[in-house]
Amino acid sequence: MTIAVIPPRGIGSFLAESWGYDAVAYLDADNWFEPDHIEKMLQAHVETSCPVIACKRTFHELDGTRMNIWEAEEEAQLHADTSCWFITRSAFSLFRAWFMPKPLAPVCDRVFFQKTVFDQFRICFTPWRSVAFRTQYTAHYRDAKMPAPSGCKDSPDYEGLRRYVAEPANIQTLQNLFGFVPQF
């Protein structure tokens, strides 16, 4: 099986498909894979035949020091960070979801998750934490009872996102793009 590790989501996904890759794994620039990440994701696909595999993350300070926190939505299998996805060829139709309106960019992984569920792709959630997530979010430092470094981001403006997806003009656009209106 040929696997592409893709940083730019949308364009990179389509390039991997056109170049004949059998699977895509994403990796944001500030994250890293544990050495056996791809092997474990491929193993999960082979064992389950699921077209979409998702792992969990470890959280790290900006200097790479591991933090002892988790995200409840990820633990409940209701969210997967972009770098935690492993998408196989039979689910490549999901790639179009990356071309979403710019206001949804801060929650692109949540929209992608909702699209995966909406399109009824089986997702295998592995027990492994094979992606290291270098967090820039103040909420993660607050959860770890640590001061956030300067320059950290606040959580996305979910109220603003809810207003955006509720606007009549946007509802039709989102329905056309995804077949549903994302919820936050």
Account of the protein in words:
The protein is of the alpha/beta class and 184 residues long. The protein has a single domain (3-155), classed as Spore Coat Polysaccharide Biosynthesis Protein SpsA, Chain A (Alpha-Beta Complex). It has 7 helices and 7 strands, in the order βαββαββαβαβααα. It is globular, with a radius of gyration of 16 Å.
Low-confidence stretches: none
The helix/strand class is: alpha/beta
- The CATH architecture term is Alpha-Beta Complex
Q: Got a strand count?
A: 7
| Pattern of helices and strands | EHEEHEEHEHEHHH
Strand content of the residues, in percent?
Answer: 15-25%
Percent helix range: 25-40%
The total tally of domains equals: 1
The whole-number mean of residue pLDDT values reads: 95
**CATH structural fold name:** Spore Coat Polysaccharide Biosynthesis Protein SpsA, Chain A
Distance between the termini: 36 Å
**CATH class (first level) name:** Alpha Beta
| Rg over alpha carbons | 16 Å
